[in-house]
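Lab intake sheet, docking and co-folding queue.

SAMPLE TYPE: protein with bound small molecule
LIGAND NAME: zinc ion
LIGAND FORMAT: SMILES
REQUESTED OUTPUT: full 3D complex as structure tokens
PRIORITY: normal
SUBMITTED BY: R.K., bench team

The fields below were copied directly from the construct record.
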Amino acid sequence: MPLPKAELHLHIEGTLEPELAFALAARNGVTLPYADTEELRRAYAFTDLQSFLDLYYALMAVLRTEEDFAELAEAYLARAAAQGVRHAEIFFDPQAHTARGVPLAVVVDGLGRALDRGEERHGVSTRLIMCFLRDESAESALETFEAARPWFGGRITGIGLDSAEVGHPPAKFREVYRRAAEAGLHRVAHAGEEGPAAYITEALDVLGVERIDHGLRCLEDPALVERLVRERIPLTLCPLSNVRLRCVDTLADHPLPAILDAGLLATVNSDDPAYFGGYAGDNFDALAEALGLDDETLRLLAANSFQASFLPEERRAALLAEVAAYEFAPRAAVRA
Ligand SMILES: [Zn+2]
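RESULT FIELD (auto-filled):
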């Protein structure tokens, strides 16, 4: 049995595996600029965040109907559950779909169909967090926010900020985050992945975020680290993503040990697992191997994931008790 964990940084569009992409393309009459799944996989040799985003948005063309979104989410839940994920707070990018003429209701209701069955079928509870593309305008984010109001407090429980970071500081989205706070939604944002530590501070001060997605570059600002520790602001780290997008050279160079030593509330997540070489459990395994993490460190990371989640107190406590009682397999056969 794998170590129970929550996944807090997962873009549902980033779980589109090549096989499903080709199946949906055939069903929807979409022509992909790749001969087969092998050629597509070879295109996954990214040089930076932008080179990934270019392919990521191109492949989304295959997602058109409610059924497509339901199948995408169902496939993720099955894979995540097999790797010990018991709770997932899932990002989606409404603007990437509405811009292609796919109505917001198709996206939200399609995803919802699979998420509604997630707990019963896979033992995975879920939340849906709507992200704004930060390289789009503040006006576009506000329009998207208003269009999504019917789902607030129901299917949609929070907002986030993703896509190309550099040159798009958090303050650009001050107004939409103000409205989200007013609407009682949770607020998170990507910051300090490729962008500077100052974007993390700005996300906290101007947007009032409760969690920082990535946040790696906080280490460049000791006063900020101290604040993140003091205010118990979680970081949702994505190690395999960091290597693929060249934020770190190799996993052995990942700053997780320094982050934990500083007392930061770090969690381990998969970001866009179909593109970056692994789901949540794969990220735990790869880190354990590359950094020589012991069982108690893995247990701490799993406990952190539930602490940092937006779960109600009762389920959080139950899952934390499972983590505390978890018995690790002997190291040779370990499967975190
Ligand atoms: Zn991300």
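REVIEWER NOTE: Residues 5-308 form a domain with the TIM Barrel fold (CATH 3.20.20.140).
SIGN-OFF: pending second check by T.M.
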